[in-house]
Structure formats: structure tokens, C-alpha cells
Amino acid sequence: MAEAAKWYVVHTYSGYENTVKATIEKTVEARQLQEIIHTVSIPMETVTELTDNGPKTYDRKVFPGYVLVKMVMTDDAWHIIKNVRGVTGFVTSGSSKPTPLTDDEIYQLGVEKREIIVGYDVGDTVSIEDGPLSGFNGVVEMLDIEKNKVRVIVSMFGRETPVELELDQVEVVSE
Length: 175
Prior knowledge:
Helices cover about 15% and strands about 40% of the residues. By secondary structure, the chain is of the alpha+beta class. The protein has helices spanning about 15-30, 75-80, 105-110, and strands spanning about 5-10, 35-40, 45-50, 55-60, 65-70, 85-90, 125-130, 135-145, 150-155, 160-165, 170.
């Protein structure tokens, strides 16, 4: 049943996000619903504010008024979430049926992390496999796995040009 679990966005009254999250987690624990409702998350970001007293760092909600829930959408799960105090409903795409987030949306929100295995390192010769420079070869100058970026130095028209690509757009040139 874990394969059918998807992330859904639940709309709450502003300021009720933590209460909604705690209530859902308590209900799941009390009713033994871990197979249906997997995870409840409130996307947060760390902010550093410069004040007269020096820098002040704190966490703030990325989307105030929203809670993300990874669950198997069943009538029971829908009913449990919908009846939590502070929940106004699920985010939908025009229909009354809740719309799950896509994989790209999940990764962009930082709710789940992709495991990226890179088969190359700085200094390796790679071939660009996707995009307008497809077919060009270059040398890896910089890797930023957390941001999913690689900078490759490509020789075009007799000049060395740095090109920033996503990690999966290049492959190691086998010799």
C-alpha cells in the first residue's frame, strides 16, 4: 500500500499549521493508521535577519496556511483529515477530488530528497546528453550536488565556454 501514497496539500486557517499537524499525527497514532497516512510536514526555511543587535536567525513557514500530507487517498483518510479542527480542505485542481503533488513539485519544495549518484568528478571529460549543446564534450569544472548543478567547460568556436547544466544532462565519456 506504500506505493499508492502521494503528497497532498491541506489548506488550514493561518496560524493553525502546527496544531493541524499535531492533531493528524495523534489521530494516526491512536487509530493505528500508519499504513494510510504516512507523513505530515510543514515546509520551513531558515531566515537570517540583520538587526541593530546583529544577525537573528529563525525558521519560518514557506507556505503559511498549508500543511503537506503523504497518504493513501481513501475515504477514511479524506474524512479524518477534513474533520481536523483548523482544516478548511484539500487543494484541488478544479474538481472536488484532491490533487496530489507531482514528483518535481515535491523535490522543488524540498519535502523529499532525490538520491543522486554521480558517476563523474571534477576534471573528468563528459558528454552533454541533453539540451541545446547535446553532443558536445567538455571537462567538469564544478559540481553542486545539492543544487543539482554541474559546470562544464566546453570548447566552442575555438573558445573555452563554461556551461551550467543539471547533473543528469551529462555522462562520462568512456575511453
